[in-house]
Design brief:
Length: 272
Amino acid sequence: MTEGRSWPIEAAVVDLDDGTSLALHTCTPDDERGVVVLVHGIFGSKEDFDTVLPALAEEGFTGCALDLRGCFESTSPGPFSLEVFAEDVIALVAEIGSDIPVHLVGQGFGGLVAEEAALLEPHFWDSVTLVSSGPGGLGRTRPLRFVEDALDAERPLVDIHREFLEILGLTEEHPSTFITERLSATDPRAVAAMIDAAENTPDRSAALCATGIDFHVVYGEYADSWPVPAQVAMARKFGADPVVLKGCSDHPAEDRPEATARALVQNFLELD
C-alpha cells in the first residue's frame, strides 16, 4: 500500500441473464488482501459508499459497491424481492470471481440482503458484516407504512423520500441534484419490494448462526433505524462484539468513512 495515495473509483456494469444490468463502483489497490462487496439500503445506491471505497483500498481491500436491481443505474425488468436481490449479489461475485477472501457488508436494508445471500450460498463469504441493520424486519412501523401507502398511491419517489425523512425527524427541504436524479431513476417496484422485506422478514438469527459464517455487527452511536438493543442482542447470538462508531448515525460509511473502513478491516483481519 502507498500511504496517502489517491485511489480512483471506477464504474462498471455486469449484465445478468434475465436482462438485469448491475451498476458498480469499484476501487482496487495494487496488492489485494480481500474483496469487500457493499450493499446499500432503502432509497440508497452505490454512491453511499464512495467515500469508504478509497479508505478500504488504502487498507489493501478491493471495494465493490453495487446498485441493487431497479435502483439508480441498475436496470431490470424484474421481478423484485429480497431473494432476488440476494441472488444478484451472488451472481455478481460469481461473475467477478476471486481466489482471495470475499467479505459481504450490508447497510440498513442491505443487511437483510446480505443475510439472505449468506443463507443461499454460505460458502461464498469469508465474513458478513451488518451495519445498522438487524436479524429480520422491523414490522409495519409508521415510516415504512407511510412509504408503502405512498407507493400504492403512485406518488413520486422524490416526494416520498422527503416526507419519509420528515417522519424520521430529519430535514431535507431541498434535495440535492444527485438525490433527485437517483430517485427519479429508481424503479418504484424495487422500493416496494424493499419495504415489504423490511416489514415482514422474520428473525433468522438461528439459521444465520448455523451457516458457520463469521458475522460482525457495526452501528453508529446515534443509529435508530434498527433498535440498538436488538443489534447488540444479535451480535451476542453471533458471538461477536458489536463495534460502535462514535459520532455516526445509521450511515457511518458516509459520516466517518475512514473509521468505518478501519472497523471493517479490523473485523476481517481477526479471521486470519
